[in-house]
Amino acid sequence: MSEKLAGKRAIVTGGATGIGYGIAKRFIAEGAQVIITDIDAQGGTSAAQRLGDNCQFVHHDVSLASQWDGVFAYAEKHFGGLDIMVNVAGVTLMGTIEDLDLETWDKTMAINLRSCFLGCQGAIKLIKSNSAASAGGSIINMASVSAVKAKPELVAYNASKAGVDMMTKSVALHCAVSGYGINVNSINPGVIETDMLKKVISQVEDGDALMDSYRALHPIGRIGQPEDVAAMAVYLASDEASFVTGSAFTVDGALALN
Ligand SMILES: NC(=O)c1ccc[n+]([C@@H]2O[C@H](COP(=O)([O-])OP(=O)(O)OC[C@H]3O[C@@H](n4cnc5c(N)ncnc54)[C@H](O)[C@@H]3O)[C@@H](O)[C@H]2O)c1
């Protein structure tokens, strides 16, 4: 079977582990060259080593505007341009409207939402400068079913992910009417088995009960794996999705219908 992303150049934030790592792995298997970025320097370096010659790691805190220029400059220098931007890095910091402090709210917004704004802004600039032969591209922002399903203890996370979905639509419209050939979509995963899930489980008293309740939320009878999300990302990044822009793609074993 032919590679779906042959010759394409991608940046994946939060690529040291979890969904970002799963996407980078699948992209490389489909013929892409990938820069993974992450705040975790050790994890990112070892992930890039595991992923082989078509993967490079750049240390990067997505919440800091000052660090984005360096990532795009690296892509320009090493790849000569960019075709795919995947904004995956994110955190789940728990708290209700009554107990979440402002610092945690701001941190959640900076890592989950402002990062996507900065990633889209820089990616559009770089993709626009591609040669005519590789014009256009794809931007994918990682939201969550939490963009559409509220939980009392996820006040900041819910708001940040709903923001990602709606910001994605605005950016997609802008790119569409500007004739850039850049497709912009978001993915709303259900519960996916990653380090983030382990952290959430570790924050509560009865982790096993929470895990069982997460499984039960998915009518399909299981929680998801990074590969489930990566498969959607490959499609959205591929030329097959050229008429697909401005949408939020749910990958959740029917959780959102529950
Ligand atoms: N796991 C789930 O159940 C789930 C469900 C829906 C959506 N998501 C979303 O998918 C994305 C990835 O989640 P995951 O489960 O793979 O998480 P994870 O915690 O396993 O991995 C996230 C990665 O992002 C990195 N990161 C965190 N803060 C960063 C920062 N400021 N700058 C750069 N990198 C940073 C971490 O070091 C880590 O490598 C997140 O946006 C998350 O909200 C996850």
From TrEMBL:
Protein EC: 1.1.1.47
Transmembrane regions: none
Pfam families tied to this protein: adh_short_C2 (PF13561)
The organism's taxonomic lineage, starting at the top: Bacteria, Pseudomonadati, Pseudomonadota, Gammaproteobacteria, Cellvibrionales
Keyword Chloroplast among UniProt keywords: no
PROSITE patterns assigned to the protein according to its UniProt record, in alphabetical order: ADH_SHORT
GO molecular function: glucose 1-dehydrogenase [NAD(P)+] activity
Record-given protein name: Glucose 1-dehydrogenase
Stored Gene3D superfamilies: NAD(P)-binding Rossmann-like Domain
Keyword terms, alphabetized: Oxidoreductase
Keyword Oxidoreductase: yes
Family statement: Belongs to the short-chain dehydrogenases/reductases (SDR) family.
